[in-house]
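Worked example 2:
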Amino acid sequence: MEARTKFISIIHQHPAFSLFVLSIVLFPLAIGTVHLFDWDEVNFAEISREMIVTQNYLNVQINFQPFWEKPPLFFWIQSLSMHLFGINEFAARFPNVLVGVSSILYLYRLGKQFVSKEFGLIWALSFLGSLLPHFYFKSGIIDPLFNLLIFASLHLFYEYQLQYRKVKLILASSLAGLAVLTKGPVAILIIVLVVFFYILLKRKEFKIKLVDVCLALVICLLISSIWFLSELLHGGGVALIQDFFAYQLRLFTTSEAGHGQPFFYHFVVLFFGCFPISLVAFPSILNYKQRLKSLNVFQDFYSLNFILFWVVLLLFSMTTTKIVHYSSLCYFPLSFMASTIIYRNFKEGLSLHRLSYFLLVFVGVILSILFLAFPLITMFKSTIIPFIKDPFAVANILEPVQWSGYEFLIGLAYFIGLAWVLKWIKKNSYYFIHLFLLNAFTLTVFMIVVVPKIEQHVQGSLIAFFKAHQKKTEYVTTFGFKSYAQFYYTQKQPSTNHLAYQEQWLLYGEIDQPVFIASKLNRKDEVLKLSNTVFLYEKGGFVFAVRNPDPEKINQTNPKLDPLGQLH
């Protein structure tokens, strides 16, 4: 008890330094112990790897073919990380460690600037100690960088409209341009919508200066055009612009890659995934006029965060394609709104809202059960499996992975810690600091001890298969499901045979060397019906086979290719 009190006291006495140490220690732990997950992590890492292999940093490629879906900024950073640490999982995820440290310190600085050191500490810890916000800084996806650039751009716009200083607008526009270079024009859409509704809210006070608007647009376009110009000059042509915007449109109008979900999908993701900040903010989530005067919090900045939250949530709820991290930009305003409530309660001696407290207990218990259940599934698999109807999931569970049998203690320890915190937190919001730290440390330990074993159940056999086939004399592909792992984990190199980039040719054409095929259990019969295909083995829910070339036809039917892969 004394050690815990002393630890909290040190954090209060040296908040900036403590936050830096916590984030620089917690975020990198375990990021190199787990294989990259399909799709996005492997997809992005493969793009960066191919930049290194080809020494072409201007044109984004996947499978050494043009890839118009994403701009290059994140891949430039990721490829630099790979130059420093090698092409591996740690290097692929390390950029988000830096983004995480920067985000935590940035939120502390903002909170200190707007209210006090205490508020800044609560805000930063709320991000460090909530589930998905913490987890994303251990990942290799684009969104943490994109979200930080968008939020910082809007913050600088807010500061600009206080005194109309052009330097703030220039910085805001520059960050908006970098956000476009990170994930595309959706950055402009979000910023424009938020600014529009903010101006509408403050229409009696806000002064629109056309010169400043033009300046902002020019700066943003100049920075964001770097990618388009480089592609136009190096072969992308008009096709780049057409394909890129066609892809953006598909995300909003069709279920891209099977990611169709109901309208309320992101509401559920944020409700459970942002524990505990989502539950603190929940009773006030529809009220942009929080009682903030006694806290000296800028009411307008709260309104800006309120608008940002709803713009992002509703925008991506209306899109047909829904993926968990699409709503991740909500984490910034959600953490701000929750921190405001926590700080107000702490300063004014108010009790936590009864609904928030009930939700904290309810979701906290569910989370504890999940921490307990994941390690116990394999211990009681004979009891659980009869209730599972999916053969692929059953095979995942039956995959032999070495568990010590003590991993459930993480969940048990978390439940005990949570019960203690919840005992005090209802009447004293100061104890939210303990909850944030409990979450951060538990997530880190869970990712070190449990997640690598879960990953082995889910995709361990698949990755092992790809790693076993890294020869230039072999092709590797998938059947019946989409993956980028076969490129990254086979360390694929450019092929002199342009047909080798076509999946249909690999599966049905007159191939010139063996094609190793990975498929899921439910597509086994279809795979084995492919011509000249031999079953290899079945493991972890996946079926592995090889399709051999026909020696009698290979020289007769294959086109003759020069070393550059050109047809003759």
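Residues 71 and 181 are 5 Å apart (CA to CA). The two ends are 78 Å apart (CA to CA).
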